[in-house]
Structure formats: C-alpha cells, structure tokens
Write a structure and sequence with these properties.
This protein is mostly helical. Helix content is 77%, strand content 0%. Helix 15 packs antiparallel against helix 16 (268-313). The chain crosses the membrane at residues 23-42, 48-69, 81-105, 111-135, 156-188, 208-227, 239-261, 267-289, 301-321.
C-alpha cells in the first residue's frame, strides 16, 4: 500500500511527459519482476521490500488509464462507456483474488505470488503492441522524425481461508446492477442532451448523479455487515452486504473518475494520480487501526463507525453538483485544459 500511495504521484505526471506507453510498460514490468521476487524471497524483510515495488509498479494503471481514455475518446459519452467497461472489468480480480489465494496458500504462501505472475504475465506482450496515445508526445516525435505514428488470511466462524474468500462474491451482482445503471443513465443523459434540456447542459449532471445514487450503498453495506455479523446468524447474512458495497463502489468510481477526466482532459492522469494517492494513504493507515478498533468497539460498532464516516462522505457528489461550476472555474488546470 505504501507503493500504491507513492506510485501514482510519480507515474501520472511522467505519463504526461514521456507518454502513456513507456510508463505503463516499465511499471508493469516492475510489478511482474517483483511479484516473482516475492515468490522466491528468502526472508520476511526482503518480502516487504519486494512487495513495496510490486505496489509501486502496480499502481500505474490507477494514475494513467483515465488520461489514456481521455486521449482516445473525444466524445464524453463514448469515454464514459469505455471507462465503465474498464471499472466493471477491474471488479473481478479483487473478487477472485481472495478465493484463489485463500485455497492456494494452504499449500504454500509462495504460490500466491506464482499464481499472480501466471495470471498477469500473459497480458504483458499486449502492452508492447499498444500505440502511444498522448498527443503532445506524438507531436514531439513528429517534429523530430517527421513521421507521426498512429497510435486476510484469517478464518471466520471456523471457515477455512479458501471458503472465507467466497465472501467477496456478492460484490459481483452489486457491480452488475451498477453497471446496468451506468448504461441506462448514460443513454438517458445523451437523449436529454440531444433534446437540449437545460439540466443536461450542466457538466455536473453528466456523471455525478451516478455517484449520488451509489453513495448510500457503502454506508448500507457497512451497517449491514456490522449488525448481521453474529455467531447466531449464518455467515451468508453478513456476506450479502457485499451486494450494496459493489453497487456503491462501482457507481462512485465510474462517476468520479469520469468527472475528473471530463474536467481535466489531458491533465487527467495527474488528477487521477492525486486521488489515487489520497485513497492509498488512507489504505496504508486505516488497517493499523482496524484490530484495536474492532477489539475495543466490537464488530457492530466498529463497522457502524466506518458506516457513519461513509455516510458523511456521501454528501461529496451532491456538493460537486452544487458547486462544481465554481470549483472548475477556479482551477487553473481545468481552464488550461479547456
């Protein structure tokens, strides 16, 4: 997570200087090399160091892909659908990862990393065939060569680690529902824009209503998890909270990442890097508080505390709808992008 926090700050801006392709190729190569290093690490300190570089390399797509889609798609509707497909596709690995690692780590923890390498490595050659998409870099190359190129491994209720991984599966139907809503709203908005309805002409209504719909999903999931996680209830009950989590998570990410891309355009990689770093900082420190918080407050109130924080954060997309025009008008990067 420390690597994930540092990487986007480096690679987002670097992709706007050297281009998207070389930064992606180098960072994914770093990720794959150090994943293999983790599998053969001789000591725990070495494993920690290798894991840092895994996070460093693996964080690049979070910072770069928003800008890459901005390079490719001028039409906000097409760009929104493309990013929605991407976010939907990235829902599956976090669901399958705990299941695979849960079962395979019962043989040896090293196979967790070997499995990740086996799954990830075949996609690397595709990066080598990917054309560069960042226009300023293409322009520089054209001027030089006159040839522009187209471009928790812990058991719960006595369940095994592998079975506990199945708890992530309910996130999938929630994500599917959210994905359907994204398509429905995108079509509805496009029709309203063609009809020249006044509300559709406001940039904030292109993406943010999706986040407003999804925002309550995370608090609902946390409250559900907190108050159904009892020995007297079947484990499936708290697991089902994942439906609301997947629903809220995907809608929020699709809406806000698209909103950043729409607003910052060619600078969207840096904007995405900033948000990814902020998320990763919280992801680094929050686990340090998890064990003492849950030990002191219990599952019910600890989850409810997180739910209350999420409920407070749910107001963010509404604030952007209300004040987004003013915020964008006072951003020098947005003005420069326009």
């Amino acid at each position: 997570m420390a690597g994930f926090a540092i990487g986007p700050v480096l690679f987002g801006p670097l992709s706007e200087y050297f281009g998207r392709k070389p930064v992606l190729v180098i960072t994914i190569a770093i990720y794959l090399i150090f994943t293999m290093a983790c599998a053969v690490s001789p000591t725990f300190p070495a494993l920690l160091a290798f894991q840092f570089f895994c996070g460093l390399g693996g964080s690049a797509p979070n910072a770069i892909l928003g800008g890459l889609f901005s390079d490719i798609y001028d039409d906000p509707h097409q760009r929104g659908l493309a990013m929605s497909w991407f976010m939907f596709a990235t829902t599956f690995p976090p669901l399958l990862g705990p299941i695979i690692s849960g079962f395979i780590s019962e043989i040896t923890w090293r196979w967790t990393f070997w499995a990740g390498l086996i799954i990830g490595a075949p996609g690397f050659p595709l990066l080598l065939t990917m054309p560069e998409t960042y226009v300023p870099v293409l322009r520089q190359r054209h001027e030089k060569s006159h040839n522009e190129k187209q471009t928790t491994e812990k058991s719960l209720y006595g369940l095994s680690a592998g079975v506990v991984g199945l708890a992530f599966l309910p996130i999938l139907p929630g994500s599917i529902i959210a994905f359907i809503i994204v398509f429905m709203y995108s079509s509805y908005y496009s029709k309203a824009l063609r009809a020249e309805l006044s509300w559709a002409k406001l940039e904030e209504y292109r993406r943010l209503p999706l986040a407003c719909i999804g925002a309550p999903g995370i608090p609902i999931a946390l409250f559900w998890l907190g108050w159904s996680a009892k020995l007297s209830m079947h484990p499936v009950m708290p697991m089902m909270s994942g439906i609301f989590f997947g629903f809220g998570y995907l809608l929020i990410f699709v809406a806000l990442l698209n909103y950043l891309t729409d607003a910052y355009k060619q600078f969207s990689a840096s904007a995405s890097a900033a948000t990814s770093t902020l998320r990763s900082i919280f992801a680094v420190f929050l686990p340090l508080a998890t064990t003492p918080m849950y030990n002191k407050l219990g599952i019910n109130w600890a989850s409810s505390l997180l739910g209350l924080f999420s409920l407070a954060m749910a107001i963010v997309p509404f604030v952007f709808i209300r004040n987004g025009v003013w915020i964008r008008a006072n951003s020098k990067f947005v003005q420069k992008a326009q």
